[in-house]
Amino acid sequence: MIKISKNAQEYISRLLSKKEFNTHIKIFVNNPGTEKASCGIEYIYHKDITNLEKKIKFNNFNVYIKKNDLKYLKKSKIKLIKKNFNFELMLRSPYIGVIKKISDLEQKILYFIEVNINPFLISHGGKLILKKINKKKEVLIEFQGGCNGCSMVSSTLKNMVEKRLLNNFNEISKVIDITLHKPNIFSYY
By residue range, what is the domain housing residue 157? Predict the structure, then answer.
């Protein structure tokens, strides 16, 4: 999945040794699957880790990645480079940008969700991910974060998600929420 060079692992360990106990590394992705895709590395404190992240263990530290970002980070490499008299971590992710041709219906819907739906949901601590498009052209989606278990999710599905997707993609027949909704402390309402 993600390879971190030996030098980069040693460097990360040194950085973490200067941080609060139980500080780890998080790799994040912005605008995945789009032409504006970018990724980066930051610290994450143990108290901020949720069940939305996957833990990858290394010798002296853990790396956390949001589960729905994993597909964009496959075959990623982190290495240590020397720039002038400083050292920097360089993260290369070959699959972070457009994964399929933009003409592909799934890619168009992924992009539409990231640009037109998720910015609103993120303001409530939630996110929508496209799980798949079946042979009947039904779009199967999953709500995450603050949307999972939210009492307003059926309204959000009908009045925003379904309405926008059906109005913008006449190829699709239906939008189906396959989320196993469980109200929790992150649920918005």
Answer: 105-177
For residue 55, tell me if it sits in a domain: yes
At 38-60, the pLDDT tens digits run: 888 999 998 899 888 999 999 99
- pTM, two decimal places: 0.53
Q: Does residue 23 sit in the same domain as residue 71?
A: yes
Total structural domains in the chain?
2
Give tens-digit pLDDT for 70-128: 888 888 999 998 877 788 888 888 888 755 444 478 888 988 898 889 888 888 788 89
SS (H, E, C) 35-53: CCCEEEEEEEEHHHCCCCE
